[in-house]
Amino acid sequence: MDNIAGKKSSLSIAVNITVLLLVLIWLIPTVGLFVSSFRDRDAISASGWWLAASSTEQTFRGRGDTETTTPVDGGFALTGNVFEDPEIAPSFPDGQGNIAAFGDSGRAPGAYPAGEVADLGDGETLIVERNGDYVFTVPEDPEGSGPRYYIVAEAPPSFTLDNYRTVLTAGGMGQAFVNTLTVTIPTTIIPILMAAFAAYALAWMDFAGRTWLIAAIIGLLVVPLQLALVPMLTLHNQVGIGQSFLGIWLAHSAFGQPLAVYLLRNYMIGLPRDIIESARVDGGTDFQIFTKIILPLSFPALAAFAIFQFLWTWNDLLIAKVFLPSSDETKVMTVKIADDLLGSRGGDWGILAAAAFVSITIPLLVFFTLQRYLVRGLLAGSVK
Amino acid sequence: MNPVFQGLITIAIGVGGIFLYFIASNAFLDKVLFPAKGPNASRNINRANTIRPWLFLAPTIIALSLYLVYPVVGSFIRSLYNRSGNDFIGFANYTSMFASSEFRTAFLNNVLWALVVPSVSTFLGLLIAQLTDKLRWGNIAKSLIFMPMAISFVGASLIWKFVYAIDPELGIINAIRVNMFGAQPLDVLQVAFWNNIFLMVILIWVQTGFAMVILSAALRGIPEETIEAAIIDGANPFQIFFKIQIPQVTNTIIVVFTTTTILVLKVFDIVYAMTGGNFNTQILPSYMMQFMFRDDGRATAVAIVIMLIVTPVMVQNIRQARAEMR
């Protein structure tokens, strides 16, 4: 179009910038979660995730090394370098760092600037140099455990897989992952098959009441699922299904029908009439036509609905809360996150982030690999 | 039994059962009930062919009537009974509900959601569809904006919990407030009225991609000549967009808008996970979940109200579908 107008205006730059900005706004929340899921609790509380790649000022604690105890005037001196302390060393892989301040209590870990001799009272003095060398003087031989000190230092950025390890092993997220799969896979496959037969009948078989039935299915597309919760749960309890996997399989399979039939029928009606009629002339039964011709040709629409149904059942919270028992063995991931983690782990952001990411990786994978079909399916449903 | 194992068996039974049902019922129809031979062969074939569609439709019709049609009636009847379900109390659930201030809050908030979310996400979707159309990296941009569609509402809520976090070392909103404007950190989810908007942002974030994909296809379907003619007549890009393109995709805009409106009336996850309906952020779907398992009479009454709200859309959809089929 630009060529026709004969000019490539400054508008194009503005468009580029606007789109870039929108994409950034769209991405930032997810990136934040992703980055946070790889940071431990200390790092998260020390600095925002947007600073995760730069070093941050953090507080560490260590003990004076008693093996270096030497008698000096007025007591004993402990010497060493804080970056060799077993409690501190893991955070500083290079073995060196920059100390801003130090102290002797957890309440005021940075009470004294680095390089100054601090009088701690009771005859104790401590000095920590910027490079980490320290001299701790105490009036009595500390023997077993050295005295505590605290330092505030620039820690290099650190990333860890611990959150994922915790989420997957402890806390039942692994079980919830399996449960989600257990709910999702049957409820993706079974309703497609049911709907495909129905869609074929509505698209290619002639019978009284067909238009009426199609209209009814389009009407059912918008019926709020909330209506089904109480009556169907009561019914499930009465027939002995109760709250169980069987119950949720039935519920999801039924709730998926209107959209499945609608999408598949829209697609099937667009298949060439000649193929189907020549198959009929050759003596093919409806069942043969359906399995040998329609089903293979409808693959794109089947795939599109499969993706929808998969995403919908994987991401569902409402149906899972109502139709599955609320015990730990049967919780799916959405319920686990919404009810357990957000409540009890409310402050543990690293764990929350990792849990959320575990729950969204599979849908994202499905989404990015099969996006083509998803878009085609959406379009079959809404634009003629 | 291990649920995974149970799931595999279900797939086998389900898929096998459905095929078996179709094969067996077709065979029964053709071989036993109306065999295509003997004195009445041709009449039998005709009869078999009138019945066959219903064999194909039976599983779907049974599932739909049981899980979507019966509940409309079932919920309504249940809403006329008290909490335990033993005593018929007429419309008492409705009258006490309409009198409660929490229901009114939920209802008004829901009206706000149903106005703001569809309008904003349709508008943004249209804007992005148009802007990315001519970009070389347009498809990548679209794919990234479409991505939240794959994320559960619970996951999306969690993602935004990070954005809205009160700690300026965690929440980017408060980080900007504190570091750039020197303001005090603020729990945005407790700011009266605006917290509703902040919750809507989450759904808009999820839904804009949907609007964008559909509107982008619609924009591409516009005949090129109309745009070329406008360019020759000297229309500027804005005039082309508003006067040539938008009028030609009005129908699609309406479809996107109504689809999103219907969705708004179903989503309880966001409010449930973010605020639990506190701080005056309740909406009808989450209001209903408060009563679920506690007072089924009241819960079904809320569901019926939601049903009444979507009924006009439903009637309109059916009308349009019938008009198209004629």
Summarize the structure.
Chain A is of the alpha+beta class. Chain A is built from 15 helices and 9 strands. Residues 1-6 of chain A have low confidence and may be disordered.
Question: Key features?
Answer:
heterodimer; A: 384 residues; alpha+beta; 5-stranded antiparallel beta sheet; 9 strands; disordered N terminus; B: 326 residues; mainly alpha; 14 helices; 76% helix
Structure description:
- The complex is a heterodimer of chains A (384) and B (326).
- Chain A is 56% helix and 13% strand.
- Chain A is α+β, with helices and mostly antiparallel strands and 384 residues long.
- In chain A, strand 6 and strand 7 form a beta hairpin.
- Chain B is mainly α and 326 residues long.
- Chain B is built from 14 helices and no strands.
- The chains are: A alpha+beta (384), B mainly alpha (326).
- Chains A and B meet through helix 1, helix 2, helix 3, helix 5 and helix 6 of A and helix 1, helix 2, helix 4, helix 5 and helix 6 of B.
Estimated radius of gyration of chain B: 26 Å
Distance between the termini of chain A: 25 Å
Q: What fraction of residues of chain B sit in β-strands?
A: under 5%
User: Strand-residue fraction of chain A?
Assistant: 5-15%
By secondary-structure content and strand pairing, the structural class of chain A works out as alpha+beta
Order of helices and strands of chain B: HHHHHHHHHHHHHH
Largest sheet data of chain B: none
Fraction of residues in H or I helices of chain B:
over 70%
Major interchain interface with per-chain residue totals: A-B, 120 and 116 residues
Low-confidence stretches of chain B: none
**Spatial strand sequence of the major β-sheet of chain A:** 2-3-8-7-6
Radius of gyration of chain A: 32 Å
Residue windows where pLDDT falls under 50 for at least 5 positions of chain A = 1-6
Q: On the 0-100 scale, what is the average pLDDT of chain A? A: 85
Let me know the average pLDDT of chain B.
90
